[in-house]
């Protein structure tokens, strides 16, 4: 029984990967707005209903790793080493993700271009980002023992999530990330004198 479940899950993952790959190939070649979900399904050799079993919308095809990214972000907080601060764990997680993005090469660059060119993808990304921020705030609140709606936790989650956007074009992005998280940890009073 376990072996069958393993095969079934592998098959689902293969189908999901085939759909995401087909979508990116078509979107990159012809532009996001010029490709329909039916074409993506045909390219991956599946039915449209199968596509929607794996992806809730056309936009979701571009952001294939959405759930995994959110889970990893929350895990960085919840599963950090004993004695390690939430902010240090988040900083290290953000730095690691930045390195992965830098190593992703042309695929990542193509995705960034698609998003830049499509208002629908920009809107979807913003909604996705807000979901991640909300999940992060909930995890931080839980770890800190404060109510989930605590404004300080919401602000911390927002600033932590936005930190990577500030790094673009910086000569030493890793150092800049450390400085941002130092500011978050020590507060503005440690900077302004």
Report on this structure.
This protein is mainly alpha-helical and 193 residues long. It is 74% helix and 0% strand. It has nine helices and no strands. The radius of gyration is 19 Å and the shape is globular. It starts with a helix and ends in a 7-residue tail after the last helix.
Concise overview:
By secondary structure, the protein is mostly helical. 74% of the residues lie in helices and 0% in strands.
Following the backbone from N to C, one meets helices and strands in this order, namely: HHHHHHHHH
- The portion of residues forming beta strands comes to under 5%
Form type: globular
Q: What kind of assembly state do the chains in view correspond to?
A: single chain
Helix-strand makeup class: mainly alpha
Gyration radius, in Å: 19 Å
Number of strands: 0
CATH architecture group name of the largest domain? Orthogonal Bundle
The span between the termini is: 66 Å
Low-pLDDT sequence parts: none
Name the features:
mainly alpha; globular; Arc Repressor Mutant, subunit A; 74% helix
Topology:
Blueprint (H helix, E strand, L loop, with lengths): L1 H29 L6 H7 L4 H7 L11 H13 L7 H18 L2 H12 L1 H26 L6 H16 L6 H14 L7
Helix pairs in contact: 1-2, 4-5, 4-7, 5-8, 5-9, 6-7, 7-8, 8-9
């Amino acid at each position: 029984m376990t072996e069958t479940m393993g095969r079934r899950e592998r098959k689902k993952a293969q189908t999901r990967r085939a759909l995401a790959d087909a979508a990116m190939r078509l979107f990159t070649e012809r532009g996001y707005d010029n490709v329909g979900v039916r074409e993506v399904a045909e390219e991956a050799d599946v039915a449209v209903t199968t596509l929607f079993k794996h992806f809730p919308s056309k936009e979701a095809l571009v952001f294939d790793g959405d759930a995994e990214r959110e889970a990893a972000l929350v895990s960085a907080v919840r599963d950090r080493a004993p004695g390690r601060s939430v902010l240090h764990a988040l900083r290290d997680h953000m730095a690691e993700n930045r390195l992965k993005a830098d190593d992703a090469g042309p695929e990542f660059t193509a995705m960034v271009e698609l998003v830049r060119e499509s208002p629908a993808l920009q809107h979807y990304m913003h909604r996705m980002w807000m979901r991640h921020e909300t999940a992060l705030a909930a995890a931080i609140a839980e770890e800190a023992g404060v109510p989930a709606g605590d404004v300080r936790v919401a602000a911390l989650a927002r600033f932590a999530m936005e930190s990577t956007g500030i790094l673009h074009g910086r000569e030493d992005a890793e150092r800049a990330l450390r400085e941002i998280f130092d500011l978050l940890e020590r507060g503005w009073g440690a900077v302004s004198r």
